[in-house]
Design brief:
The protein has 120 residues and is mainly alpha-helical. 32% of the residues lie in helices and 3% in strands. It has a two-stranded antiparallel sheet with strand order 1-2.
Length: 120
């Protein structure tokens, strides 16, 4: 009759194998492209919500530019569909993100801030 006792060596071998599998799975998941809310993978080509997903990187801005962005309450998605960056006179369209003459950094066409001014 075979003994089903777990030896220390067998336990350590199984624990190491399980650790290797867990590490491999986490590396695979880390390399998988993220999906935006609309189901699009990767960056944000196009407009609306898809563009907003790729217009959040402010790492290249100075602290003063970030402070201005915050003080003007810039958001990537406007709560008022009638007032968004796409129909603001200060907005310059671009792909996937535009720019603004007041708020520095990437600007989503669907975004909004307190400096919004209607196009004439």
């Amino acid at each position: 009759m075979e003994s089903k006792e777990l030896t220390r060596r067998a336990f350590l071998e199984r624990a190491a194998a399980l650790g290797g599998v867990a590490l491999s799975a986490s590396l695979v998941m880390a390399c998988k492209p993220k999906e935006s809310a609309g189901g699009e993978k990767g960056g944000a080509a196009g407009g609306g919500d898809k563009a907003a997903a790729g217009c959040t990187d402010v790492s290249g801005l100075t602290d003063a530019e970030k402070a201005t962005r915050n003080s003007l309450k810039y958001v990537d998605k406007s709560t008022d569909p009638a007032k968004n960056c796409g129909n603001c006179s200060l907005f310059v369209a671009g792909e996937p993100c535009g720019t603004c003459s007041v708020v520095k950094g990437p600007i989503a066409a669907a975004g909004n801030c307190t400096a919004w001014a209607p196009k004439s």
